[in-house]
Amino acid sequence: MQKKQSPLFTTRVRDALPSLHPSEKRLAELVLNFPGELASYSATELARLANVSNATVTRFVRKVGYTNFEEARQHVRDNKQAGASLFRVAPGTPGKKDFIATHVFQAQSDIEQTFHLITEQDIDALARQIIAARRVWLLGTRRSASFAQYLGLQMFQVIPEISVIPSGSETLGEAVSAITSKDCVIAFGLRRSVSGLPQAIEQVVKTGARIAYIHDSNALPELTLTWRFMCETASPGPLFNHAAVLTLCHIIATRVIELSGASGRRRMSMIEAIHNALDEV
C-alpha cells in the first residue's frame, strides 16, 4: 500500500503560523511567497534576507516540524520535484527578456530528448495493438486528463471503441473494473497525479490488458507494463512544459489512423457524410 504523502512545506508553515513569534512570522511570510527558493539558500542567507537571526531560523524550522534546516530544504526540493507550481515560481521573473525564445528552446530540447529514447517500432506496435483491441481506454487524472481526452478524440476518428477514464462522477475503481485482457490501456502519469494512480494502474495490470504508460519522472518502476514512454517536461518557468507529451500523442494518433487501413477510411468517410448531412462543421 502506498504511504500517505507528507503535507507540503507550505501547509506546515501555514498550520504553524498561530504559534510563531513576530520575527518567525516575518520569516514565514518570506518563504510562503517563494517557497521553492528555500532550497537554494543556506540558513545564514535566509536569515539575512528576512532580517532575522540564525537562531530564529532554527526555531522556525523546528516549529514547522523539521529536525533541522537541511531537512526542511530537502522537503522543499521534494515538493518542487513533485510538481507543485508554487515551488517553481522564482522572484524577479516578470521583466525577464527573451522569455519566448527561452521557452521555445526548452520545448525543442524536451522533444529531442524524449524521442531519442522512443523507437518507431514501439510506436507501431502500440498503434497496431490499439487497432486490434476490443476497447481502448485512456486513463488520465488532473492535468493528465487533458492529454487523455486529446488522444482519445484524435483516434476516435478511426477507432469507435474508445473510453476516456475516469469520466464525470465515475471513480477509478468503477472504470478499471470494466477493463478486460482483450483491451489496450494508455495511462498518463504526469506530475501531479492523484495519489491513487499507482494502485489503479496496478489493478489494470491484473486484468491482463496491454498497457502503454506515458509519464515524466513518475516512472512506477515496480510495475510490469507493456510500453513505457518517458517524456521530458523541463521548463524555465513555474509550469512543466508538455510539448513532448503532445507531440507523442500526435504521433500515436497519426500512426493509428495511417495503419487503420480501409476500415479506418470507411469510418472517416461516414463521419464526414454525417457532418455534411447535419451541416455541423
Automatic annotation (TrEMBL):
<dbReference type="InterPro" id="IPR036388">
    <property type="entry name" value="WH-like_DNA-bd_sf"/>
</dbReference>
<feature type="domain" description="HTH rpiR-type">
    <location>
        <begin position="7"/>
        <end position="83"/>
    </location>
</feature>
<dbReference type="GO" id="GO:0003677">
    <property type="term" value="F:DNA binding"/>
</dbReference>
<dbReference type="InterPro" id="IPR046348">
    <property type="entry name" value="SIS_dom_sf"/>
</dbReference>
<dbReference type="InterPro" id="IPR009057">
    <property type="entry name" value="Homeodomain-like_sf"/>
</dbReference>
<dbReference type="InterPro" id="IPR047640">
    <property type="entry name" value="RpiR-like"/>
</dbReference>
<protein>
    <submittedName>
        <fullName>MurR/RpiR family transcriptional regulator</fullName>
    </submittedName>
</protein>
<dbReference type="GO" id="GO:0003700">
    <property type="term" value="F:DNA-binding transcription factor activity"/>
</dbReference>
<dbReference type="InterPro" id="IPR001347">
    <property type="entry name" value="SIS_dom"/>
</dbReference>
<dbReference type="GO" id="GO:1901135">
    <property type="term" value="P:carbohydrate derivative metabolic process"/>
</dbReference>
<dbReference type="Pfam" id="PF01418">
    <property type="entry name" value="HTH_6"/>
</dbReference>
<dbReference type="GO" id="GO:0097367">
    <property type="term" value="F:carbohydrate derivative binding"/>
</dbReference>
<dbReference type="InterPro" id="IPR000281">
    <property type="entry name" value="HTH_RpiR"/>
</dbReference>
<dbReference type="Pfam" id="PF01380">
    <property type="entry name" value="SIS"/>
</dbReference>
